[in-house]
From TrEMBL:
Residues 1-20 form the signal peptide. This is Serine protease K12H4.7. The lineage of its organism: Eukaryota, Metazoa, Ecdysozoa, Arthropoda, Hexapoda. GO terms for biological process: proteolysis. InterPro entries: AB_hydrolase_fold, Peptidase_S28, Ser_carbopepase_S28_SKS.
Length: 498
């Protein structure tokens, strides 16, 4: 019954998504980048309900005259905790906290091994952790990585009191994607509270024009052996460009790509056209970023989309691109392909916690506009998907959604500031292990090498996707992923000996 309910909720979420929202946008998956962990290990808590607890958190850590508080959601797992054992903290990120993680995933396997007490804390402004009564731009000024890190510091301090923890109970932070960055930064900023971290797939360099993203997408597609998948995608994209130039071609595009609104009316609107191309590129990005990870549910892989791109029986390259688009729409339960810029902006402008954007789309957009950039543009040599979605296209979205104060200038300041306060690719962290996968486009903004200039330990896993090492170990993991898991355990062993 419970499973059925969860499925039903997932289904509703997807139906919701079909109006205006895409499954994958700006390098972020609907609902957040970390999926649900797959496969229950029956010896664990398995079918028990996860209880939500609420922590009274300060609204503004940087203004002592502001005494407002709000309720932050967290989960606890005491099942494996041994006296003097460590405390593991899973950091929540750019989507609703997924309760299953308190019972499952690689970190729970480590918790069992090390006798750890486990917590996971939802990130402010995501999921059910609402610091303010809506998401107005005015209220979102309390949404930042710095506030989130201070949330973690307060949480750790109060849990130490509540659970009678001592210096022998060392806190280790875990996080994947943006929380991977937070895991590194919380050790850097609050080293007296956090003993060490495993930072998975975390971008460390803030950047407006993240053109490298699609370079990795290209390289990842190029690993497909069946045919030149990259070339097929390029030809298909060029054919779309040509078809868009005349009325018959435009109608062909409407039909082939199942557009929600006919493109004839949009042809004079470069923002719609940018959004169309960006959406088609995201079809591939969303597949590459999660290629064969172990999240719960079925997902398309590079083999699936390149299999279609290489299949000449389907038709010309543009028709094969349309087939990939159909596969992606089907996998996310969407009836048509939505590319209207104004519609997207209107959805993103909704400040209500009940709106579809409240799953995190609006909040994450705010963080990209005020802290990180990370815009996956078509600006560089790849030309995999043409050149239709440059950095300006994303900067304009900041202004259109949050107001004219959010512009090129403020974004440059924001990026500069983020890199200065955290140290970008030269962080001063100790006891932090950085883990990335070579297929995952986000590795391009993270630490992947250990050398003289960069003494921090890293693991760069050939062939794995975003956050792959965080999911439950399984027999069919790549050998190199199995080795990485062993290295992570050794790192934790050494950390807990220190
Ligand atoms: C919060 O601050 C206001 C204004 O300074 C004050 O009146 C109120 O008593 C404070 N509340 C608490 C719980 O400290
Ligand atoms: C912590 O210690 C206090 C006082 O000794 C006790 O009442 C409380 O139950 C303890 N809490 C836990 C979680 O063990
Ligand atoms: C190629 O596409 C055709 C038509 O959709 C399909 O019947 C066939 O199974 C595909 N071939 C491969 C190798 O996937
Ligand atoms: C925002 O979303 C809510 C919930 O879906 C909806 O009721 C409301 O009409 C939307 N507001 C605007 C301004 O579109």
């Amino acid at each position: 019954m419970k499973t059925f309910l969860l499925r039903a909720i997932a289904f509703i979420a997807l139906l919701h998504l079909s109006d205006g929202w895409r499954l994958f946008k700006n390098g972020r998956r609907y609902g957040g980048n970390l999926g649900d962990p797959d496969k229950y290990r029956t010896e664990f808590l398995a079918n028990q309900d996860v209880e939500d607890f609420w922590f009274t958190q300060k609204l503004d850590h940087f203004d002592p005259t502001n005494n407002k508080t709000w309720q932050q959601r967290y989960n606890v797992n005491r099942q494996f905790f041994k006296h003097n054992g460590p405390v593991f903290l899973m950091i929540g990120g750019e989507g609703e906290m997924r309760p299953k993680w308190i019972q499952k995933g690689a970190w729970i396997v480590y918790a069992q091994k090390f006798g750890a007490l486990c917590f996971q804390l939802e990130h402010r402004f995501y999921g059910k952790s609402h610091p303010t009564n809506d998401m107005s731009t005015e209220n979102l000024r309390f949404l930042s990585s710095e506030q989130a890190l201070a949330d973690l510091a307060y949480f750790v301090t109060r849990m130490n009191e509540q659970y009678n923890l001592t210096v022998n109970n060392r806190w280790i932070a875990f996080g994947g994607s943006y929380p991977g960055s937070l895991a590194a930064w919380v050790r850097e900023k609050y080293g007296h509270l956090i003993h060490g971290s495993i930072s998975t797939s975390g971008p460390l360099l803030a950047k407006i024009d993240f053109f490298e993203y699609f370079e990795v997408v290209r390289d990842s597609l190029a690993t497909y052996k069946g045919c030149d998948c990259v070339e097929a995608v390029q030809s298909g994209t060029k054919q779309i460009d040509v078809l868009l130039r005349h009325m018959i071609g435009q109608r062909t595009i409407n039909e082939k790509f199942k557009l929600c609104d006919p493109v004839e009316k949009s042809i004079e609107n470069p923002l719609d056209i940018s959004n169309l191309f960006e959406g088609l590129a995201s079809n591939f990005a969303g597949v590459v970023q999660y290629n064969k990870d172990k999240r719960d549910g079925v997902a398309l892989s590079i083999d699936d989309v390149c299999g279609a791109m290489c299949n000449q029986t389907i038709g010309a390259p543009v028709t094969r691109l349309a087939e990939v688009n159909r596969m992606v729409l089907e996998s996310s339960n969407q009836k048509c392909f939505d590319y209207k810029y104004d519609k997207m902006i209107d959805d993103m402008k909704n400040i209500s916690w009940g709106s579809s954007g409240a799953e995190g789309g609006r909040q994450w957009m705010y963080q990209t506009c005020t802290e990180f950039g990370f815009y996956q543009t078509s600006d560089k040599p790849t030309l995999l998907f043409g050149d239709k979605f440059p950095a300006d296209f994303f900067v304009k979205q900041c202004s259109d959604i949050f107001g004219e104060n959010f512009n090129q200038n403020s974004l440059s300041n924001a990026i500069d500031r983020t890199n200065i306060i955290y140290g970008a690719l030269k962080p001063s962290t100790t006891n932090v292990l950085y883990v990335h996968g070579s297929i995952d486009p986000w590795h391009a903004l993270g630490l992947t090498k250990t050398d003289k200039n960069q003494p921090q330990p890293t693991i760069y896993i050939q062939g794995t996707a975003h956050c792959a090492n965080m999911y439950e170990p399984s027999d069919d993991d790549f050998p190199q992923l199995k080795i990485a898991r062993e290295e992570i355990v050794r790192f934790l062993e050494n950390l807990l000996k220190k």
